[in-house]
């Protein structure tokens, strides 16, 4: 590429002397080099059309070694800071809806092929959607989820309402069937999701989560009429936008009580999704004055008592029989306690008698949202430490030297104390207690 072609030298240059020819070639080479540099400078902004190429940062320059020349301490501090961010939120015992029904709307329009998120918005969305489904079912064992795609101006049903996370993951695992095309339609997709939840009882939540990457929507009618219907039927809409904020998206979230956010990068996108994993706070509905004396202060009478059934689990060696949900021959399954019909998975609603069927472990695990474990307080200095030199849960010894760079809400000596039993835990056990077991090992609360 650095060789000089004959076209860079004029014909008159050959009539000069040998020295003149050399000077002419050098002059022509300099002009050609300057021209290529100018052309390269002009093409440079065009080559960096994608946002992820322009936002290149030298992250390795922010890493500082400790006194021993190791990076392990710095990496542990970063991981601890990210894990405790969610634990620092207020853990108040409020009334929440533990029986949730959610419809996940995924934008499958052509705008999802943009490369501002690596490698594309579509690939990142599918990856985070799988992680969200697993975490959502882990934290909400009594919930059910359906998936709807938005492409070619219509809403496409991808997965029906199911309480089995494997069914939902299987429906979004084949990306060739979900290839983005056309324009999205918010109205058609929301109407499809709302109609699929009209039969649900009032004690369960009706939620719609939209991952929206387009700046346009192709609607057949007035979308504000759809918004009024969602408010009337108490459907909560939350939107995670990948492009920019739109007025209609903000109105859909504000008027229905949902959350709205615009993802700035991949990490922020994941944070916005996982903020919707905990159950939402239940909105109080005033009881009518004619309901009885002394009942004016009571709220939401439909959730006072509800009927549930605990099924009988069939062993794998039982003779095959047809299930009521899929009409397939299966050996294992559950029996409805009311009509004795066979179902595949729980939690679900019986297709024969309509009874809500749950298992007792799922019901017990759902209570941690109503009575969460109190946040552990970080121990600031060695003056306030207890007699134990190791973690109360895992018996790992605490560090003996304080950390230099400590963020807000973190302990410089790696100790976090329960406010009830005053026992100290390490950062890993702190996260494990609040995220997995939901019970303090020291006091049992």
Automatic annotation (TrEMBL):
Ranges of Low complexity composition bias in the record: 1-12
PROSITE patterns in the cross-refs: ZINC_FINGER_C2H2_1 (PS00028)
Organism the protein comes from: Lentinula aciculospora
GO BP annotations, alphabetical order: DNA-templated transcription; nucleotide-excision repair; regulation of transcription by RNA polymerase II
Residue ranges covered by zinc fingers (C4-type): 336-353
Biased composition (Basic residues): 24-45
Alphabetized SMART domains for the sequence: C1_4 (SM01047), VWA (SM00327)
Function: Component of the general transcription and DNA repair factor IIH (TFIIH) core complex, which is involved in general and transcription-coupled nucleotide excision repair (NER) of damaged DNA and, when complexed to TFIIK, in RNA transcription by RNA polymerase II.
Any one Gene Ontology molecular-function term assigned to this protein's record: zinc ion binding
Family: Belongs to the GTF2H2 family.
Gene3D superfamilies assigned to the protein according to its UniProt record, in alphabetical order: von Willebrand factor, type A domain, Zinc/RING finger domain, C3HC4 (zinc finger)
Descriptive protein name: General transcription and DNA repair factor IIH
Subcellular location: Nucleus
GO cellular component terms, semicolon-separated: transcription factor TFIIH core complex; transcription factor TFIIH holo complex
Top-level taxon: Eukaryota
Ranges for region Disordered: 1-48
InterPro entries, alphabetized: C1-like_sf (IPR046349), Ssl1-like (IPR007198), TFIIH_C1-like_dom (IPR004595), TFIIH_SSL1/p44 (IPR012170), VWF_A (IPR002035), vWFA_dom_sf (IPR036465), Znf_C2H2_type (IPR013087), Znf_RING/FYVE/PHD (IPR013083)
NCBIfam families: ssl1
Start and end residues of each C2H2-type domain: 418-438
CDD domains (alphabetical): vWA_transcription_factor_IIH_type
Membrane spanning residue stretches: none
Record keywords, A-Z: DNA damage, DNA repair, Metal-binding, Nucleus, Transcription, Transcription regulation, Zinc, Zinc-finger
């Amino acid at each position: 590429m650095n060789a000089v072609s004959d076209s860079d030298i004029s014909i008159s240059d050959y009539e000069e002397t040998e020295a003149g020819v050399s000077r002419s070639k050098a002059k022509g080479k300099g002009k050609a080099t300057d021209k290529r540099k100018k052309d390269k400078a002009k093409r440079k902004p065009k080559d960096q059309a994608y946002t992820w190429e322009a936002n290149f940062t030298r992250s390795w320059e922010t890493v500082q070694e400790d006194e021993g020349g190791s990076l392990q301490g710095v990496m542990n501090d970063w991981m601890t800071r990210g894990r405790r961010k969610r634990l620092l939120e207020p853990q108040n015992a409020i009334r929440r809806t533990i029986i949730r029904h959610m419809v996940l709307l995924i934008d499958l329009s052509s705008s999802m092929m943009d490369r501002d998120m690596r490698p594309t918005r579509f690939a990142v969305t599918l990856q985070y959607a799988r992680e969200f489904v697993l975490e959502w079912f882990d934290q909400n064992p009594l919930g059910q989820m359906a998936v709807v795609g938005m492409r070619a101006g219509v809403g496409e049903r991808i997965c029906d309402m199911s309480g089995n996370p494997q069914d939902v993951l299987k429906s979004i695992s084949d990306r060739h069937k979900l290839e983005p095309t056309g324009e999205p339609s918010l109205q058609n997709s929301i109407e499809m999701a709302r109609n699929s939840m009209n039969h649900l009882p009032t004690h369960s939540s009706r939620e719609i989560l939209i991952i929206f990457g387009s700046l346009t929507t192709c609607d057949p009618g007035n979308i504000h009429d759809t918004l009024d219907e969602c408010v009337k039927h108490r459907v909560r809409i939350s939107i995670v936008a990948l492009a920019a904020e739109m007025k209609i998206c903000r109105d859909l979230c504000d008027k229905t009580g949902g959350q709205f956010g615009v993802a700035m990068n991949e990490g922020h996108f994941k944070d916005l999704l996982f903020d919707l994993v905990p159950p939402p706070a239940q909105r109080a509905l005033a009881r009518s004055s004619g309901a009885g004396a002394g009942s004016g202060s009571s709220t939401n009478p439909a959730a006072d008592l509800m009927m549930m059934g605990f099924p009988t689990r069939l062993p794998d060696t039982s003779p095959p029989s047809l299930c009521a949900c899929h009409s397939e021959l299966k050996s294992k399954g559950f029996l409805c306690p009311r009509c004795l019909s066979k179902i595949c998975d729980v939690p679900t609603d019986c297709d024969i008698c309509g009874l809500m069927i749950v298992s007792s472990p799922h019901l017990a695990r759902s209570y941690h949202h109503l009575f969460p474990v109190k946040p552990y307080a970080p121990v600031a200095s060695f003056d306030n430490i207890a007699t134990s030199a190791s973690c109360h849960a895992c018996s790992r010894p605490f560090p003996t030297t304080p950390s230099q760079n400590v963020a807000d809400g973190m302990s410089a000596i790696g100790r976090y104390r329960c406010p009830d039993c005053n026992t100290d835990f390490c950062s890993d056990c702190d996260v494990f207690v609040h995220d997995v077991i939901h019970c303090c090992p020291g006091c049992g609360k």
